[in-house]
Design goal:
Layout (H helix, E strand, L loop, with lengths): L16 H20 L2 H11 L4 H9 L3 E5 L2 E8 L4 E3 L9 H11 L7 E5 L3 H8 L13 H12 L3 E8 L2 E11 L2 E9 L4 H16 L3 E3 L13 E3 L1 H12 L15
Parallel strand pairs: 7-8
Antiparallel strand pairs: 1-2, 3-9, 4-5, 5-6, 6-7
């Protein structure tokens, strides 16, 4: 028969409760910071322990971090604050030659094969499609809980989708979050070649026309490189973040006209 650990309890005098509580907090925080690798890392870990809500998601975005469920356990969210990270300078965005050729070719397609772009027409199905595994993968980071949070943000007018249709069917799209002059691209999907690329091009054009100041995206060494993505340090990102989230910019839910 094993031995159960004895639970030690003690009563803290009322006059000492405040000081004792603060002392324990300081000791625990110091230990957590050392284990986590620093105070900021400890804060990210602490945030990840709280229940995810739309409020907490917005709070994280405004701090320049973003929550992602762990692939092996989608009930646990990790708050990422990478260094460096990739942005697409919105003001400098131009449609590059290879993408321009793709857009021109697409315009010459027969009507049933031609792409039609819409904004926020079917956000729910767009993010559901983004959450589906791709290739040989059996899971993605967009969990059911994360999808529910994004749907709430969409109902608040904060999360948006640019969608690509072909013959009336949703075949591609991109979802993201707009907070004043700051936009975060979260995910894309396609079931037809170039469908997500075209949707993303329209999104970038919309952001440029609306005057967005900062656009966070995926790794600059990935698919986003063709749109001008560049890596910047965490310090430089934070310097750009404050002016962006305080800029009086409004996301316009209209499909822009491309000069092609």
């Amino acid at each position: 028969m094993g031995f159960l650990p004895k639970v030690v309890s003690f009563i803290v005098p009322a006059r000492l409760k405040g000081p004792t509580k603060r002392l324990l907090q300081q000791l625990l925080h110091s230990g957590l910071a050392k284990v986590s690798g620093g105070q900021e890392e400890a804060l990210l870990w602490s945030n990840a322990q709280a229940k995810l809500t739309p409020y907490r998601m917005i709070q994280g975005y405004l701090h320049g971090t973003f929550p992602m469920p762990k692939v092996d356990n989608n009930q646990i969210f990790i708050w990422y604050d990478p260094d460096p990270r990739a942005i697409i300078p919105v003001a400098d965005f131009k449609i590059r030659n290879d993408l321009l050729r793709c857009l021109k070719k697409e315009k010459l397609q027969e009507l049933d094969k031609r792409f039609e772009i819409k904004v926020n027409t079917n956000f729910e199905q767009t993010i559901i499609n983004c959450s589906k595994p791709r290739g040989i993968k059996t899971s993605t980071w967009i969990s059911a809980e994360y999808t529910r949070m994004m749907l709430e943000l969409h109902q608040m007018g904060i999360a948006h989708s640019f969608e690509t249709y072909q013959n009336g069917e949703l075949v591609g799209g991109v979802v993201g979050v707009a907070l004043n002059g700051y936009f975060i691209t979260l995910s894309l999907f396609r079931t037809v070649d170039n469908a997500s690329k075209v949707a993303f091009c329209y999104l970038l054009t919309r952001l440029k026309e609306d005057g967005f100041k900062l656009h966070l995206t995926g790794d600059s060494d990935s698919w986003f490189a063709q749109f001008g993505a560049v890596n910047i340090t965490r310090k430089d990102f934070r310097q750009e973040l404050i002016p962006a989230i305080t800029a009086p910019v409004t996301f316009t839910s209209l499909v822009p006209e491309l000069s092609i």
